[in-house]
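Fill in residues.
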């Protein structure tokens, strides 16, 4: 049977399509390998920033695209995750209102101690109380990412570690999502927000000496990877992320030390004043060299215009 011109054309088109598909498959495989972290053993070849962060050592062998995916915002159809995301945003905004509440009460020293990283001295400037709305929402979004990252990682990412108490709290939060009463939305939100605040405090209060590695420090490393460019973020780009994480940890720990619900009961007859109550928590978890709090000491080398952030 003679091969027609039409058959030849179809065969040639199929051959081209097969080659295109093969090339695309090879390219997809190659693109995947770009997100695989390979540690450079020679410190000489690393820029100071990567030597300092140790990201290439921490994430060696990991597919960063999979880790970054754990921190993604939920889709509109992911109702349980969307509930957690929205509730976490409300928690951060409520904690920030706690800073403003201190000002309204005339507790003027609190913002200075909140900003300070020195154990024995308040800062010369107060903690900022005005942020552009977009900045405030962006800062809150980092913590929203972190809480979802923790929930997702608990289910199947062994490289993210949690203490026994942290894991128990994560499981309790996850269980709450399946126990909600559709007829009592206000109570549902209150329970979830309370558990998210409890979890956030536990995640921040992670000792450097715990057997488990801090998930917060690990998460900040994940945020240090730019998935679009398939490379680590540079210091100037990473600054705003670090500032947002710091903002969240500080307003959360203020609420942990001075719950707004208890503040009306504090007066001149109280055994401890607000500053003393706050410092009992702050001096352990919000100062330089203690706990896992991320402390941005910006060492700016004016000659080389190099910014290095020290992450303790």
């Amino acid at each position: 049977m003679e091969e027609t011109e039409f058959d030849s054309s179809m065969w040639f088109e199929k051959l081209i399509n097969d080659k295109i598909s093969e090339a695309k498959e090879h390219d997809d495989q190659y693109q995947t390998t770009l997100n695989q972290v390979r540690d450079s053993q020679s410190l000489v070849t690393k820029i100071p920033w990567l030597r300092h962060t140790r990201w290439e050592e921490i994430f060696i062998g990991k597919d960063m695209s999979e880790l970054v995916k754990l921190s993604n915002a939920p889709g509109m159809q992911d109702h349980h995750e969307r509930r957690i995301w929205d509730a976490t945003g409300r928690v951060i905004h409520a904690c920030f209102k706690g800073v403003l509440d201190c000002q309204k009460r005339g507790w003027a020293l609190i913002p200075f101690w909140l900003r300070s990283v020195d154990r024995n001295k308040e800062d010369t400037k107060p903690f900022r109380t005005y942020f552009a709305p977009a900045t405030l929402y962006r800062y809150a979004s980092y913590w929203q990412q972190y809480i979802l990252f923790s929930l997702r990682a608990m289910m199947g990412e062994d490289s993210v570690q949690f203490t026994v108490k942290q894991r128990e709290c994560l499981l309790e939060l996850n269980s709450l999502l399946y126990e909600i009463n559709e007829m009592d939305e206000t109570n549902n939100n209150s329970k979830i927000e309370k558990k998210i605040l409890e979890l956030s405090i536990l995640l921040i209060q992670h000792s450097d000496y715990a057997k488990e590695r801090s998930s917060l420090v690990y998460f900040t490393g994940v945020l240090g990877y730019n998935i679009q460019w398939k490379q680590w973020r540079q210091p100037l780009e990473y600054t705003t992320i670090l500032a947002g994480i710091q903002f969240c940890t500080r307003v959360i720990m203020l609420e942990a030390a001075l719950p707004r619900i208890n503040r009306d009961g504090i007066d001149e007859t109280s055994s401890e004043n607000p500053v003393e109550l706050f410092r009992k928590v702050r001096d352990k978890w919000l100062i330089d060299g203690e706990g896992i709090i991320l402390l941005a000491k910006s060492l700016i080398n004016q000659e080389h215009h190099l910014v290095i952030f020290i992450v303790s």
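Residues 255 and 262 are 10 Å apart (CA to CA).
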